[in-house]
Design a protein that fits this description.
The structure is a homotrimer of 659-residue chains. By secondary structure, chain A is α/β, with parallel strands linked by helices. Chains in contact: A-B, A-C, B-C. The interface between A and C is large, with 61 and 48 residues.
């Protein structure tokens, strides 16, 4: 059931601001006031605190030490800062772990992952659920009506470090319960999972095991259900916190800081309980962890790829139903990627403005000051370690603050003309059954996004099933399971709609779609996929016709009653169109993708501009922003003078025009 | 002790037929009759059923549901199909796993690998042995004399998913018992294993541990014994099933479906209890999983390498003492390799005919219809998922059926002139002690086979110790342990015999051969190996003389009283010959191997023809088959017109001549 | 606290000798006498025995079988050999493991690593401590005053196979005890570890867990402490053995055989209890296991890289306070590297003389005879397996013995003019927090060493804190933690001192140095590191000025009041100098490193000679040795005739001059 409301542009949020993450518990109390004053001087409005401090305010069960936190809150408030308070559930203290050893998650190999870092809990622990409710209740009661308290962050980066799914006895118990609720009988479970296949039948829900440590791959339908179950546990855990906070802290908003390219739970669903979305933007870290090519990693190592942050701004604006923050903004080199270069000069400033261009309400840097100890001591802050002195990134934040001041209030973000349908289950289905080792959903979506943005367009992300009336071009790069809502939304769309490979290929129970793929989408494009090939790296199949380029990674063999508008080298259909719908029966390589997007935009009547690889445009209301991620200057093809910056935009800089 | 009988050509099997694997339990009962009729129409004779159906006919202990299976059998039989019934022991049901948790295997890391996929049992479980005997007895009693029942398949793909060896308490107990039987006393065990080396002595068999989870590598002699023990457990488990079936199902044959390049148990030994061998032929899957070069994988990704299937046809014809089936034939893309392309048009047909050319009695496609659910839903069948409609591979199977009909009964397969000695212990010894990271026995044998086949010759595989009278050229690419029987067979051979590197290097107890390698083979070629070098990739040593090329991967330093017929760049002997025997003191690269085989064939007086890389010949009685795996046409150098196909064989096609 | 005495040249050890490792328990007793006689004939003086024989002289608790060992000792002694006796603690017998299962180590994944190979004990087992004391006591009592007994080797290769750290309950107990001793209170522990960071506080030492199996990375300060604790356990275990031996075996020396590039425990500290150091030299094995480039591995595969053995000779001469042995010298191909070629002809001889050139007192080959059984049967010995017959390496050892006889007594080794500060904690800190995936301390030090040696210079290794008066150039390639002693030694040095990247960056508690890196070193070079970048492979930043080349892997952003003597491409300081001190703010690539070393040598007034990549020089007293690792001859630029060898040194050979 879809819980997502239409994008809420009505609120017309225009004030754009900066913030910072701060840990008073790390610093001498007599530094706090100076820190707060310097935050304000830098142009910061918000300060996030408290999300890892549980053991510092409850060092033993029931032995609360609020004094220091009270004073910290008052000191920050006294300087005029607005406070974002984090619930502390990402780091349960040692005494609690000892009291309830079952809180610890069990990994897929059966190993207990214990205390000593963070996120050492399973969402299925009943004890942890209770204890989390207790501490959130107490915290919200104490600070929920503080006048400086702007809002809440629940927990911290749900799922980070592979913690959405846990494989222990508590998880098994909860999963069996979930199955019991979702299937009427073991017979229906057997039927839904295709248990007949390898004698996998159960006679009772209590016979179901977790789908790990099987001899070979576990049943994909069982895995999908376990992933769904786990995703729902996260959302329910978050909802529990939200309900407590709303009761105890009226009038304050609630958000959560999501991560980049993290798909282990359904962000659309969880976000329904939040007031808006937030995400943690580490553009350089993503260069090393997202599967770019090595050549791209070399090229973008100090700037990031120009779509990596933007992709997430647009995604989380969607997840937040039009509203989002950057809760943690990379201010310098980080500590967690295989390699961690310092950002090129200008980039911290550029990223900050770019986030606002994409509609972010607040950009909050992580962290005020580099911590000299523990796990992240090589992670930069706005200030040097142990010092009251701006880091290189801190100086850029100051510049960004001045930029924003010069721009004044920003107009509201209008809906884009292009929408991409982003689906967490699509990731799960293709991760559980890649069929080709490099069929990676996030990469496919990213490349489609990049190709559209290279044409100068803005993009919205939408969940499957959201009404699509606002759009002129809708892209579903891969949507294996098409729900009834999604089908209805496609049917009602007036846009050109393109479906990518594997779309419509599965039922909701992870079986092959009825009547063969693309299942319900046959209503829009008359074809059947009768065979699929995954293609090893280097294997390419030429595509000619309305689009020229190659298929790589994936190619489908399609029967269609329509005349294909592009064909593979062997004459088989590659692109099939009917009315405003197009089915893409392959993974397009770079050339094919550029041609495809150009063709679709033309079909949709969209005006495009072919941007160089290092430049991107973005509109916010009547403003147009241009960002140059390259070394060399780029002359913008706009006749009037920019509001900010120069028409000849230097490398690693930006400019803003009023249109 | 050798249990292999000489190749049985006397039976003169000539009828060649097609079959299919079918799962009535996957489909509505009212589809069965139509399926059966369409199988017959397609030209199929055999249908394999039942091997994964345990939980469907015994959903709870003793609660048997034979009705559906009775009806399925009768329906298939009624359409004129002959039935191959699989024993269901590859997939014990959940209730049985719960009753006896010890059935589950323990992997080398100590983790229990439980229910949820298949092969979740250890061959050492006494409970599973008992339960398997029980169900096979009941099954054989019920269907063993059904008039449509042609024969049996025991279990399914023994050892698949790394399940030959298990590392739990039951395994340890059985291993200790095995040692007790094989060694008279702990003292003799200590002596045999060289326990003095690192204080590894035991004072009782009950002190022996399994050779896993040691701090560094375990004793290689202990590992070899554990591998032998495990291999024998598989054979004994199979024998137990065979004995029950023979008692309850008189006059029916028994086979088992082996796999490609799978060496974890001794197939010669297990096969002694079968009537013939069968194997599961997935030519494209092997392209990705066998260590071909990346260039080869690119070249052969849609056709397979022209020796991959042929190698196994010849191997399993040997394992089956002249008789074999292809029990599962790839009919389209599969689901389990890293990449899974669809076969190029023509290949399913070509593979089918090729199997028959190599002597296969039946080629049985896997599976009748693509399953829409569970683990293999992206594995093609002869029919589209959920449909009564042939897939691309199904259409090719129909063509193959017509080809076979045109050819009529095929002549019996005559012994080849070239034999390759294939030894499972050779694989174990070199896997346990590779000495160079890329010393891979299967690859070595495959390359020697390929080089002979490139000369247009047919090849038989023989176990060490089989009389070699029939052959003119015998190749032992690597035979570390030379048994007395093997030595006698070599001594009695009239053939040219070539021994590859490491042959004769070990005693049966995994020690260095007495008097240095090649141990007992010094009787045939007068030399001693005094030093070995494994060579990192790229390191090559030139070889000149009777053979020109390079050594790679492995090079031995040899002392010999004979004049070497080829030498390394440093003047040391590389090839040593006496009378009809040649010792190859290195791993030959492609050039050296081609030259070596040409030289050996000449010495053996064999007529050869230098084939292009994409073409292979194969004789069956008076018929000669030519297979063209390439894109371009190949004109066969035969003067008369082909019986089937054209003299200018198109790419991905074949032709047949009567000689 | 520094326990290292200044290099002891006063003893003036000059006698250079050869030895061998021998296992009488592997061979028939009637071979011993012949073996001993042939050892003497070969020119060997020392024979090491006994280190793996525990189960052979105590097959059951208290059931001692000394007869065979008595006879073996007497036979060897009777032939005039001096005996080195190993304590047997590297291989506890099975009965002992069964008696105390807790002896077995637990690996980082929580798996018990049991009996069946070697080193199957944790240093934290109290039972094993007791049992080791018992057996060493008994052994020392029995043989400690034997007239042929020259000295002792404790255990064998401490830490081999990743056994310094164990992760079981005994280890946890001992670690908590260690923490209790090192921190006054849980509060101080929390403070030192920065527990505030992620609510990692403990309220009692009994709440501390081992830093493994955490959800994400464990606290680096906790890890460093656990690594220190583990290192100290090894030293204490060794000390326990030494104290017993000194009591029971007066007048005999004690050593231990260390390994190449092994840094898991502090060798400086452990060595304080030894009379001298020994190491096991396997130059070819290191080619495959040390991170050389693939091109280097290809080039040096049969000779080893010319600095790999030399590096360790110099290191262990330092560790041994001027005295060291090669306890195990590779005599031919080994068995444990991914590829194991035979050494090129001449190399075993060359390596032997090279060890003596670097000051080794004895070079002892491993092993007398290739063992035909167990784990190392493909490891060459001086004799062929099972034979009384020299192997190729055995013949070279005979030549080396003749070389040494020709050279006569060798002069004492004088201190070098260049010292490299080698610090085990530097390895730990950078391994725990690499920040860039290829920031590898051993590689950094090796490359600096290589660059100095390419200039024809000799090198000493010194621990941080050793007085540096003797040196004209001191290199600290990376010294994150600078102790007070180290700081004082640098301050007192008259040498040119160069500090590499990350030096001075950490406190002893693994926090960022006070006042920013380089912390206490700011006293010598006025700078602050305000940001660091790790650079992915291929990323290079040009450096110009006093040194030309590139930064790779690591680059710091530095603020300095001094004028930099070299700058990065962006103008930021790359090399900062004041007086005799230079700070290197990057990882120099090959060119930059050569230029840097040339510049430093010039500054230090050292005469250099630019050697080709394959040649190295080494002085011992008034002798100069030259070693040619290449294929082609090299003409030495010395006017007089060599004492040994030729002035035009053939490939893979050497020459010696009196200067």
């Amino acid at each position: 059931m879809l819980r997502i409301a239409p994008q809420d542009e009505a609120r017309g949020i225009k004030k754009t601001m900066l913030g910072v993450c701060y840990y008073p518990e790390h610093w001498p109390e007599d530094w706090w006031e100076k820190d707060a004053r310097r935050m304000r001087e830098l142009g910061l409005t918000y300060v996030r605190i408290g999300e890892f401090a549980w053991a510092r305010y409850e060092p033993r069960r029931g032995d609360f030490r609020w004094d220091w936190l009270d004073r910290a809150v008052d000191t920050l408030a006294g300087a005029g800062l607005k406070i974002v308070l984090g619930t502390p559930t990402a780091t349960p203290p040692k005494w609690l772990m000892d009291e309830y050893p079952d809180i610890a998650p069990i990994d897929e190999h059966g190993r207990r992952r214990g205390f000593g870092s963070r996120r050492h809990y399973t969402f299925s622990s009943q004890a942890y659920w209770r204890e989390s409710a207790r501490i959130v209740e107490i915290l919200a009661e104490r600070y929920g009506r503080h006048e400086a308290l702007a809002g809440w962050q629940t927990d911290n980066e749900y799922g980070c470090h592979n913690t959405v799914r846990s494989w222990g006895p508590e998880d098994l118990k909860a999963f069996r319960e979930w199955l019991r609720r979702n299937y009427q009988s073991p017979e229906q479970l057997n039927e839904a999972w295709g248990a007949a296949f390898w004698s996998m039948d159960v006679q009772s829900f209590d016979e179901v095991e977790l789908p790990n440590l099987t001899v070979t791959e576990a049943n994909p339908a069982a895995r999908l259900d376990f992933w769904r179950f786990s995703s729902q546990r996260v959302a329910a855990f978050n909802r529990m916190q939200c309900e407590i906070i709303r009761r105890r802290s009226p009038g304050r908003w609630i958000t959560h800081n999501f991560m980049g390219f993290f798909n282990d739970f359904d962000h659309w669903a969880l976000s329904a309980d939040l007031d808006f979305a937030a995400w943690d933007s580490y553009p350089l870290g993503l260069v090393e962890t997202f599967p770019l090519t090595e050549a791209e990693r070399d090229r973008w190592r100090e700037t990031s790829h120009p779509d990596l942050a933007a992709f997430h701004h647009d995604l989380y604006r969607g997840v937040g139903r039009g509203r989002f923050w950057v809760m943690e903004q990379q201010p310098g080199p980080v500590n967690w990627a295989p390699w961690n270069p310092a950002p090129a000069p200008g980039m911290v400033r550029l990223w900050t403005i770019e986030a606002h261009a994409h509609g972010s309400e607040v950009v909050s840097y992580f962290r005020w000051r580099q911590a000299p100890f523990a796990q992240e001591q090589t992670h930069a802050g706005l200030n040097l370690a142990n010092a009251h002195e701006l880091s290189p990134g801190g100086h850029e934040a100051a510049e960004a603050a001045r930029d924003l001041a010069r721009l004044g209030d920003l107009p509201a973000t209008a809906p884009a003309e292009v929408a991409i349908v982003y689906d967490y289950e699509a990731h799960w289905v293709t991760a559980i059954e890649p069929q080709g080792a490099d069929f990676r959903y996030p990469e496919l979506v990213f490349r489609w996004y990049e190709a559209v943005r290279r044409l100068g367009l803005d993009v919205d992300f939408v969940p499957p099933g959201l009404p699509l009336d606002a759009y002129r071009l809708v892209l579903a790069p891969c949507l294996p399971i098409v729900s009834d809502e999604a089908e209805r939304a496609f049917a009602a769309a007036k846009a050109v709609v393109a479906f990518g490979p594997r779309s419509g290929s599965k039922t909701s129970r992870f079986s092959i779609a009825e009547g063969l793929p693309p299942g319900p989408l046959r209503r829009f494009v008359p074809l059947r996929v009768i065979e699929v090939s995954s293609l090893r790296p280097g294997a390419k199949i030429e595509v000619t016709g309305a689009v020229a380029g190659c298929a790589e990674r994936w190619r489908e063999r399609v029967e269609t009653s329509a005349a294909p508008i592009a064909v593979f080298a062997d004459g088989q259909p590659a692109l099939i169109a009917r009315d405003n719908c197009v089915y893409v029966a392959f993974w397009p390589d770079e050339n094919a993708l550029a041609a495809l997007m150009a063709m679709l935009c033309k079909k949709a009547g969209l005006a495009t501009i072919k941007l160089p690889p290092e430049v991107r445009l973005r509109r916010r209301g009547e403003l147009t922003f241009a960002f140059n991620y390259g070394d060399a200057a780029w002359r913008a093809p706009f006749s009037r003078e920019p509001l900010l910056g120069e028409a000849e935009i230097p490398g690693r800089s930006f400019a803003v025009w009023r249109s």
